[in-house]
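User: Teach me something about this protein's shape.
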Amino acid sequence: MGTAPRSHETMRTPTVGAMSRILTISVIAIGGLSLLACSSDPSSQDDTTRDSTGNVVDGGDLGVFKLQVGDCIDVAAVTGGSGEETEVGTFEAIPCDEPHTGEVILVADDHFADLEEYSSISELSTQGSEACVTAIDEYTGTTFEESNFNVLPLVPTDASWDALDDRGLVCIGVTLDDTLTDIVETSESIRAA
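Assistant: First, the predicted structure itself:
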């Protein structure tokens, strides 16, 4: 598919209420989302039912601190259309054989542990994007540059960084349309067989 720049200028305004991770979409060649999370009610909830292998078999709200590799989620509901940073506490988790717009490909609770202080959403998103590109290559068995996949890194906000010692990174893989500009639904996992 070539190496077209991947940036998604879609975002929803920050949510109000409990602390959450922030979802931003960076305007870089990789294109990324940043997310902040918190330990309060929404970001730690899990209203899903999982089978014995941990796969979601009955969907529901899933807090950002409860996301697991392989979880299929509705990213479109969060990335809305405003092109701005979005604080996110929960996603709708969906069984992977049902239509969904994102799949968790990496959860690294201590990814930013070596940083002495919080820099910015933009810098964390850029650093996170690098790890997410490696993760999507491994997860899908393809290369980012030659695929129709993009990555959305979810990174700490300054609030969760300070209040929760949040140093985590979550990477979400998405499938793009033929023009590599819009996220499309899929009804299967993007994980390599």
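Now, about its shape. The chain has a mean pLDDT of 78. The longest helix spans residues 121-140. If you'd like, I can walk through any region in more detail.
User: That's plenty for now, thanks!
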